[in-house]
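Work Package 3 (structural annotation) set out to generate three-dimensional models for the target panel prioritized at the project kickoff. During this period the team completed the workflow that converts sequence records into discrete structure tokens, so that structures can be stored uniformly alongside our sequence database. As a representative example, we reproduce one entry of 354 residues exactly as it appears in the project archive.
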Amino acid sequence: MIKGFGVYSKGNVGWIERKDYVCGPDDVIAKPIALAPCSSDVHTAYEMEGPHLINRILGHESIGRLIEVGSNVKDFKVGDRVVIPCTTPTWKHPGIQDGTHQDAGGPFAAINFSSYEDGTFAEKIKVRSADMNLALLPDDVSIEAAVMATDMMTTGFYGSELGDVKFGDTVVVFGIGPIGLMAVAGAKLRGAGQLIAIGTRPNCVALAKEYGATDILSYKDGDLVEQIMERTNGRGADVAIVAGGGVESLNNALASVKAGYGNVAMLEVITETETLEIPNAYAGGFLFHKTIRGGLCPGGRRRMERLLSMIQSKRVDPGKLITHKFDGLESIEEAFHLMVDKPRDLIKPIVYLE
């Protein structure tokens, strides 16, 4: 049997036992080396519901050591240390030829951990399409950086891709939790000029500056759109990335980007409302040519290898996001509830299992 921490039903979490996994020909089985709880795990447990989320092991940020390898797997062997992306598509699905791999097979089909299949908060992790989804953990990449690359880094960086940040662009990042901090780092590496970060927690503000923010704004100092306009001499931003603040931040982002070509990248998952209301003035009756784009972060082996290469080259260190450390499988529960409570000094926790 396999023991894991998960959700019995909406709002009810605890320890679950599962029959030992069967390794398919394209799969691998790994023992976790390190795990990290995520706000998405909290959303899954307390805000989402459906038959696929009953009696489900949570978790999607992990690195592991392989203990079993399927017969079709060519590039990995037992004993390898691997980075397991949070997004693991079934790459043989024909829908990949029509659109984004994240949705091939249905909406969010690639985020199968803790949704369509058991997640990573367990004694063992099963990974599908291993040759296409896993990346070897380089010896010169820390455990901490690797775990943060599996979701925080790839998702944060996706903000600049969705927003199409160009050299010299003025970029605003709403929310500087772990995703927003990685959005700041990604925007700098993508070539942003003025880079405005919005947040108040002192440790996040300090890290935002370290990752490349040129300006810090706070909602405590007045209307954010007015502050952005003041900092940009009335021009507004080329790109706004929303990584926190919900619908209010989305509307502020839309209001603060330039008419004609302003882009809004939506990284935050909005779960607290069934409807979204956009003030007509912010969109100019939809005549301002402002673009809003959102989506699940890209997955797959090459994506992760590219991110790990940036860590190896010392372009960025996502391991700095970690503020709380735990040891042992049993401590997953405490680390998870830390993400529920979100104390002011928290950015990200990590759980070591090896």
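The chain has two domains: 2-137+317-352, 156-294.
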